[in-house]
Design brief:
The complex is a heterodimer of chains A (308) and B (363). Chain A has 308 residues and is mainly α. Helix content of chain A is 73%, strand content 0%. The termini of chain A are far apart. Helix content of chain B is 41%, strand content 18%. Chain B is globular, with a radius of gyration of 21 Å. The chains are: A mainly alpha (308), B alpha/beta (363). Chain A: Keywords: Cell membrane, Membrane, Transmembrane, Transmembrane helix.
Chain lengths: 308, 363
């Protein structure tokens, strides 16, 4: 394997991992507040279709990305209203949101299939791009990839080193205790849900505006679900989400690269690696009751009823 | 099945009930023929399912209110498909097209339950008294694409994004390799299996992985235009699949091998209306207008385009046949002798690569 090939693989790894990273960061924050939103796929697709339509009509990628996030937020608010105000089951609501988003995005996007747009171009950071091996991987990407680095840093700092992050975790661990000491449980969970929606919308926009600049029904092809698995895989730690997203990215391109090179490795085997890893992590986590209690937010998936 | 498709089915169902109620009062001849279509992908894929839906629309345009069409898209291959096909048959559809290989067994099962309904299954090989098959000889178009690719490549590396290792896909890869063997034996065909008919992200990844390895012409047997776009971005050539993909890569687009299903659908509907339909294996290609190459990239040298057109003309009149002997397999053994041809029954079961392909078929 020569240097060029490794450079290219690393570059593709980051690019492939980016949409996963963005969605997973949103879902991580959401789950830290004790809310399990399985609607990632639906929110991504809505972000993808809205971002694409807006960019196609306005010619502005920036506007496309912003409205993709707005679409994600609106979708997440539907989820928020149903689970928070009506105390509906989060799992069922999230699943419904995915089904709804898949259908609605197909419906509003049907007129826009087969229309090309100019996608987001990479921005090369001078000098650094030319570094061997890691240059292209870290400094030859497009703006959303750079943004994903920043988002990771922000989420990492927020969860681990900030006071609002502490509030978020307290709400996710025990909303009743948090409520008793006067923390705003509802507000915190709403904000977390909205952040999750914005990230899913952004990731969707990334797919339809940068990754493959086109709209096609169901184009996220299960990436929202992979992101959900990723959060579990990462045992709710931001730094592991980052590594996991890139690892999933690597696994999903490696079997393509190997086939092109003519290696006799079963492509099917390579393709299942990320999922296998998730299952293994799940088994390890659940084999030890104390450990699994420690890593997952205690009240994940439980609705909160404010008691007077 | 998604909500809107479900709605569509329900509306179709309700309409069907109303119509059958009406028909008892009015003359029976006025009943429209109800035609159902089952698609594996979204009609918005701009590829395989999209083209089938174009065919459905041309049936509507041709027969007007003499037909009533229903479609169900995004149907998973397997148990789900059987339920969908059963529902269509149950709701009074007289003719049902199922348009993906994996619908073969479900279609056969339902066909046995509804002997009075006519079924046609695309790309399969199982038949019954009321179940016919139809398939396009996509390999004819692929062969022409393989020829053009062999002439425009500079790196002598040609990429092929493949979906699943089923005979139809293997056969088309072979058609391209046979064109390479004949016109540019130095060219190497790199095959990448993505294990999906439709995943734009993955198709683009595969295209990029190939281009990283020096491929400068990409062919695909998957349904999204993502590879075409990736090729356009990096300034190489690509061949469109199923529908005309030129808008996704004005410079990259060499040509598209387009499936036109309309002619077959119109012929079949007419045969069912006239009562002349019988179960058979309909194999149609360039001659029948089912496989079309709408245009060539202007940057292809004129003599190459001219020869490609000769090939098309030859395929139409039968003088050119991609699978004419001598053909050797990967081990170098002669499988088809000089002067012989692989007939369609053999091609339907093709599970081996021809000489020149270096990789193995995934098991």
């Amino acid at each position: 394997m020569d240097i060029d090939l490794i450079t290219n693989i690393l570059y593709a790894m980051i690019r492939t991992g980016t949409p996963l990273l963005i969605v997973a960061l949103g879902e991580l924050v959401c789950e830290k507040s004790g809310v399990l939103n399985l609607g990632q796929e639906g929110m991504m697709l809505m972000g993808a279709v809205v971002g694409f339509i807006v960019t196609l009509l306005s010619g502005s990628l920036l506007l496309g990305f912003i409205l993709a996030m707005v679409a994600g937020v609106l979708m997440s608010l539907i989820f928020g209203l149903i689970t928070m105000e009506l105390s509906a089951n989060q799992v069922a609501t999230g699943l419904a949101l995915t089904i709804f988003g898949t259908g609605l995005s197909a419906f509003i996007g049907s007129e826009f299939v087969g229309k090309p747009i100019e996608g987001l171009d990479p921005v090369f950071i001078p000098v650094l791009t030319d570094l061997p091996i890691i240059g292209r991987m870290l400094f030859g990407q497009d703006l959303i990839v750079y943004l994903s680095f920043i988002l990771f840093g922000a989420v990492y700092w927020f969860i681990n080193h900030s006071r609002p992050g502490l509030v978020l975790k307290a709400v996710g661990e025990n909303p009743h205790a948090a409520n008793a000491i006067g923390l705003p449980v509802f507000k915190t969970r709403y904000l977390a849900i909205i952040f999750g929606g914005a990230m899913a919308g952004l990731a969707g926009g990334y797919l339809s505006l940068a990754y493959t600049p086109l709209w096609a029904e169901n184009m996220s092809a299960g990436r929202g679900w992979i992101a959900l698995a990723l959060v579990v895989f990462a045992s709710w730690k931001a730094e592991r989400v980052l590594l996991g997203a890139w690892l999933f990215g690597l696994a999903s391109i490696l079997h393509l690269v190997f086939q092109g090179l003519g290696f006799a490795v079963s492509p099917n085997l390579l393709a299942i690696l990320p999922y296998l890893a998730t299952v293994v992590v799940l088994v390890i986590l659940s084999s030890n009751q104390t450990r699994s209690r420690l890593v997952a937010p205690m009240s994940l998936g439980n609705p909160f009823h404010a008691r007077g | 099945m998604k909500r809107r498709q479900f709605n569509k089915l329900v509306t179709g169902l309700a309409a069907g009930v109303c119509l059958s109620a009406l028909s008892t009062l009015s003359a029976q001849a006025a009943d429209p023929l109800k035609v159902g279509f089952v698609y594996v992908g979204p009609i918005g894929d701009h590829g395989w399912s999209y083209q089938h839906d174009q065919g459905r629309k041309s049936v509507e345009a041709e027969f007007g209110d003499k037909v009533q069409t229903t479609y169900v898209e995004n149907v998973a291959e397997g148990a789900d498909a059987q339920r969908v096909i059963y529902n269509l048959a149950k709701t009074g559809h007289n003719l049902i097209f199922t348009t993906s290989f994996g619908f073969m067994n479900p279609t056969l099962k339902v066909a046995k339950q509804f002997p009075n309904v006519v079924f046609e299954h695309a790309t399969g090989y199982k038949m019954a008294k009321n179940l016919g098959t139809y398939i396009s000889k996509t390999f004819e178009g692929r062969y022409v694409a393989g020829y053009v690719a062999s002439q425009v490549t500079r790196s002598n590396k040609i990429g092929y994004i493949a979906s699943f290792p089923i005979p139809e896909v293997i056969r088309d890869i072979n058609a391209v390799q046979l064109a390479l063997n004949k016109y540019n034996p130095a060219a190497e065909l790199k095959v990448i299996w993505v294990n999906s008919w439709f995943d734009p992200g993955k198709e683009a990844d595969a295209a990029n992985a190939m281009m990283d390895q020096g491929v400068d012409v990409i062919l695909q047997h998957t349904d999204s235009p993502a590879a075409m776009q990736a090729a356009e971005r990096r300034g190489i050539y690509a061949v469109g699949q199923a529908s005309d993909m030129s808008s996704f890569g004005p410079n990259a687009h060499l040509l598209s091998v387009v499936d036109e299903w309309g002619p077959h659908y119109i012929r079949t509907v007419k045969a069912v209306m006239d009562g002349t339909w019988e179960a058979k294996a309909n194999v149609e290609g360039m001659k029948e207008g089912s496989i079309v190459i709408p245009g060539f990239n202007e940057s292809i040298p004129a003599d190459v385009v001219a020869h490609a057109k000769e090939l098309i003309a030859g395929i139409k009149d039968g003088s050119v046949y991609p699978f004419a002997g001598p053909i050797k397999n990967q081990a170098g053994e002669l499988v088809v002798a000089e002067g012989e041809r692989l007939n369609y029954e053999d091609l339907e079961k093709m599970n081996w690569y021809v000489e020149g392909i270096t990789s193995e078929i995934p098991k």
